[in-house]
Amino acid sequence: MSDPDLPDEKNINLPASSKATLVGAGIFSAFWLIGAAIIAWQFHCGNHAPIKINEWGDFAAGVSAPLAFVWLVVAVLLQSTEAAGAAAGTCPYTTRIRA
Prior knowledge:
Layout: H1 16-45, H2 53-88, H3 92-98
């Protein structure tokens, strides 16, 4: 029971700005995690004394907090873009509701 007026869920087209936002956040996340892995490797195998398990937890929290904030901002940007499209009537889901 698929409606031909609604887009297929597997083929949802995003605006170019949304795609750029997702790609930018993904690239930032990848570089952030690679940098964190390099820092963790230096502390684990470098000249520093092995750190305790609670310090690893603090390190993980410090690495993940900026990533969580970045993805929160990305989610808000994407939702605002979608809401603006829905208000303008360009969202394919609103055309079904109005008909």
